[in-house]
Amino acid sequence: ARSVRVLYVLASGFSKHRGAFRVQPLAADKAGGLSSLSDATLAAVYPMSVVGIMMVMPFMKENTQASIHNWILFLPFVPVFAAVFFLPLMGVHEAMQDAKLEMLERYGELYTRLSNRFLAEVELERSDSATVATLHAAMEGIRLNHDQVSQMPVWPFHTSAIVRLSTVVALPLVIALGN
User: Residue 32: which region, alpha, beta or left (left: phi > 0; alpha: psi -120 to 50)?
Assistant: First the structure.
């Protein structure tokens, strides 16, 4: 619990400082370049699976049924897995969301300025075709970048991290329900 709190406080503290997380919209990990943070939180979840397996041991006793108090102790364990994974990443999520919105606003403002210049140039009786083509190409580049940034995820993990988390959570459940 202490390590989760420390990770959460660190991530939240960093997210409040502008530029603390260098979010890269087109990073190869498809998580803003921050997927290693989800690996760190998964590392905190993995030891919990051992505790989860130990908690299902009462379900595996010979010829005895697990009592209701065993289930009451075990069931809250699943949300704890999720909390250990997601809580530290909340601060990073906020930083990624802020970075995405900031970039989208910048692209929007730049596009509007170029669009106004483009329209003014086109409306001139003697518009320069090279200037019009340059402005149009710049607008297309900005629109393309805007579209790429708008598709950027705002959580620092991808589906494989969720699959690994689900596996760790499911393992004690499968053992408990299998008996």
Answer: left
